[in-house]
Design goal:
Distance between the termini: 9 Å
Structural class: alpha/beta
CATH class: Alpha Beta
Radius of gyration: 17 Å
Low-confidence stretches: none
Order of helices and strands: EHEEHEHHEHHEHEHEH
Strand content: 5-15%
Mean pLDDT: 96
Bound molecules: 1,3-dihydroxyacetonephosphate
Largest sheet: 8 strands, parallel
CATH superfamily: Aldolase class I
Helix content: 25-40%
Strand order of the largest sheet: 3-2-1-8-7-6-5-4
Shape: globular
């Protein structure tokens, strides 16, 4: 299982340090073999060896240069960062990233060997338009993306489920993940209103290889509970 926390624009550097201390010691003490990733804000990046992978929520696809307000490869290298989120719906819809820009980021960071958590997911009106519309929408979000990239992790995050407390039915998640499984051998995460109460149930669904958690992962203790849920599932399935 792969269990990820996306902080978005939450937590200070100091709060992130306190959070990481809790999660690191939990992962170490419980001999967790799952992959744990945390995506803090840029200001909280540090260069430490960890048993939890630190990634960035975004970066500009260049080594460095005149890109006001962005950070690029050179700044990530300083902190040994080799993991990035690309295609998150908040960057698509709030920051206006087009599929072309997203595909360029994917090309650049895959060329530089990054582990890429690549997000896809539909707005509510597309979900309501039916399965064909939904699959066409997700297909369009995969244009320019190498779905067989060796360090790809795909994340399905329905836009209408993010931060709303709403989730698709377990059957809908299963169907969508099964459809994605036909497109890639990469691990497939589910994201969108994952909470302590539903994490285990979601991770138990066929073709769900982990979770990408926003608000519920802001509590280090809750995030650790979800990590424990994942390791329980491994014990059951003998992974
Ligand atoms: P929430 O867990 O707050 O719904 O956010 C999900 C998300 O966007 C993770 O990337």
């Amino acid at each position: 299982m792969i269990i990820c926390a996306n902080f978005k624009a939450n937590k200070t550097r100091q709060e992130t340090q306190a959070y990481m201390a809790v999660v690191e010691s939990f992962v170490g003490a419980n001999d967790i073999s799952d992959t744990i990733m945390v995506f803090p804000p840029f200001t909280a990046l540090e260069h430490l060896s960890r048993n939890v992978l630190i990634g960035v929520q975004n970066a500009y696809p260049a080594k460095n240069g005149a890109y006001t307000g962005e950070i690029a490869l050179e700044q990530l290298e300083e902190f040994g960062i080799k993991t990035i989120l690309i295609g998150h719906s908040e960057r698509r819809h709030i920051l206006g990233e087009t599929q072309e820009v997203i595909a360029e980021k994917f090309r650049f960071f895959s060329t530089h060997g990054f582990a890429i958590v690549y997000c896809v997911g539909e707005p509510l009106e597309v979900r309501q338009a039916g399965t064909e519309a939904l699959m066409n929408y997700i297909e369009a979000q995969c244009i320019g993306i190498d779905l067989e990239y060796k360090d790809l992790i795909l994340a399905y995050e329905p836009v209408w489920a993010i931060g709303t407390g709403l989730t698709p039915s377990m059957e809908d998640i299963r169907e969508l993940h099964t459809a994605l499984r036909a497109k890639t051998t990469a691990p497939i995460l589910y994201g969108g209103s994952v909470k302590v109460d539903n994490a285990a149930q979601i991770m138990a669904i066929e073709n769900v290889d982990g979770i990408l958690v926003g608000s519920a992962a802001l509590s280090a203790n809750d995030f650790c509970t979800m990590i424990a849920d994942a390791s329980q599932l491994n014990t059951k399935t003998g992974e």
